[in-house]
């Protein structure tokens, strides 16, 4: 039987106590739909990361995809992020934000389904140890708003907003460069497994939708055709001079 469950929460402070109970998830509102997940705004208004490269969540169910829209101008205490996350898992998909993926910790935002409870959707905020990556995830208190979720078989899609995101602890100095991690994990009805990273984006400016777009620079090496034209011009110039 097709399972489609949705969730809408207007504003929520998410807190996980040690020992997650799989049935203690957020309340539901049926027939609430998430937005269309496409690449249409990637590199324009949204910073997109995905694996495999350039996959489109609109037509590829195996595409693990995230789109981030950062507020402009900067909010008083940091930037506000609107995030779309899509991928396949019988447990959870997750998006992590970290300053350095090999040091410190990662803020981890998890969209999951409890397959032992008819595939019900739930959302969690956790913290990952970037040094000991096999350690269990730990509870993290972080304000998250406008949470919407959708589950169908293995497919999980969710949207949520994260207010006041700042890569520095100094509120007078706003920084929006983070490494984005995408990955998955399992859920046994009680415990979330360690986060299995599928994509490490490296440092990206979240306020710049083009920060991971490869552009062609004017300083690139000339092509073979360009070299031939330059050689011809130099020969002609020499002939005129003679």
TrEMBL record:
Q: Which InterPro entries match?
A: FRRS1L
Keyword Transport tagged: no
Q: May I ask which residue range the UniProt record assigns to the signal sequence?
A: 1-22
GO biological processes: regulation of glutamate receptor signaling pathway; regulation of postsynaptic membrane neurotransmitter receptor levels
Q: Which UniProt keywords apply?
A: Signal
Q: Which protein are we looking at?
A: Ferric-chelate reductase 1
Q: Which organism is it from?
A: Scomber scombrus (Atlantic mackerel)
